[in-house]
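Re: Re: token formats

Sure, here are both.
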Amino acid sequence: MRFGLLCSAQADNDKFGPETGQGFRDYLDLNVEAETLGYHSSFSVEHHFSGWNQVSAPLTLLTCLAMRTTRLRLGTAVMVLPWHNPVLLAEQTATLDLISNGRLDFGIGKGYRHGEFKGFGIPREEAEARFEEAIEVIMRSWTSRSRFSHHGRYWQFEDIVVEPPTAQRPHPPFWVAAASPSSIRRAAARGFNLILDQYAGADAIGERIALYRSEREARGFTFDPMQVAVARQLYVAKDKADKEAALARQAEYTRRTVAVSRSPDGNAGSHVLAYADTVGATEANTLYGTPDEICDMLTILNEAGAEYVLLTILGGKEQLRRFARDVMPAFS
């Protein structure tokens, strides 16, 4: 199995406020060590207006990380396309791909937090159409070396050539977060790689991987298990009491996420909101436990078809090292 990180950096940490930026420096140091420990990749989220200083400029942090690493794949999980000018985003990501010598994994999504759409003044009802138009523009920007114009519903560009070119050819791999059968089929049809959410159980993960594989092969694409990344929250516990305390902390963090995600009418949506109304559902499939327990859980995931796991680690460098020392060797 292959392991990477799924990071949600914050500007502050336990000792220093956001004005210091120490949390971002901690994030960089953590990922530099992750590379030396054999982790394959690091994906960074994008969030806005949460009130707890979550990373809002992931491409900036990933560019800094590119300058301090040589092998680590650098991913976005995800850039929310409805909020971005697609030409500017194509330019910024191409620059990162060049700076990193072709290590960009371009994860994209439609967004799910009500407060973010409200803050940007973009109706959530427009998310799907904006997402589709942005993909069209970015793909053309990365693959065309001649000038073009685009006259769409949301963006207008006249006689442009998008520079610089990407390092990877024909372009960096697209990764898309998907859960429903229809969204998985669309990802497979486009040849996009797949990110599966951290809350679904092993049976659901296996069904989604099987659907993705069959759809790819039906359309003439090859299938590589490394084209599917399964997100999981991780805590390597000393004992049962340590595990239960960590699960309680994670549940509190998840409640905070739900609070900024749900719309005023209370309607549930995708991602965490799909699990939020069932007690314990957001913690049921975490990789929280002793090394032996985590190995057993990973074995079940692996038997379901998962070979690439992105870990959101609670506990910083100590946890990073414990997983690398006590769990990773069993799957190398």
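Second one below.
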Amino acid sequence: MMKKLKSNNVIDTTITYIILIIVAFIFFFPCLWLILASFSRSGSIYSFEGFFPKAYSLDSFIKLFTDTTMYNYPQWFKNTLFIAVASCIIGTFLVILTAYTMSRFRFSGRKAIMKTTLVLGMFPSFMGMIAVYLLMTQFGLINNTWGLILIYSAGAPMGYLTQKGFFDTIPKSIDEAARIDGANNFQVFTKINLPLSMPIIVYTALTSFTWPWSDFILPKLLLKEKSLYTVAVGLMSLGETEFARFAAGSVFISVPIVLLYFILVKNMVKGLTAGAIKG
């Protein structure tokens, strides 16, 4: 009986691993294809033999940073970095404040606000694009990177529920003990809760960074001048014969995100799992 169970477990495990390997290959293949396409010598997708280029070289990466007359990738990269970092700092600050307030304080309208944000979060963001464009026009923030930063930062607190769940796991008795010792609300937040909240702060910062870093719709809507383009918008303006440069730009822009995920993955998992305990 035991031998039968063991053999069944071995078979189940083998089948599971085979399925996982197949699924992993299906998801990895487009990434592999894009990476190989970025090294295409011809630069055009029409010269590929089947899925892959005929010849390989580093010309696409060299042109990406040196040939900036029509396609100024370094400037697009700087624009994207500025927007993402500024949105990350402001958005993280607003999300943490919102989550802490909703977790620690009780006030009239609290439940209504939570329900409203939950319902609004179910609607796709592009539904409000016309309203966003009209507002940005009225405020004179078209062709202004600060307009994008304002939208990203203001929209970030809508997703505060995970962070609230994390703060809910911190015992309130700690706050009460600190207040007995003479600490005010600001000191309780900055000196007690924030040091205990590093995993969720890292998670929030990374998610606040990745949204503007890879977003296409909002920059395309609000940025009309080529010198203000983000990488996502700039790459989409490349011609059909510049596919290798498009692939090279896509690969290069993904490197910082991949590195950040690998470096911060432990804190991310801690923050996400702890934040999912309570809602």
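Confidence is low (pLDDT under 50) at residues 275-279. The CA atoms of residues 85 and 182 lie 36 Å apart.
- S.
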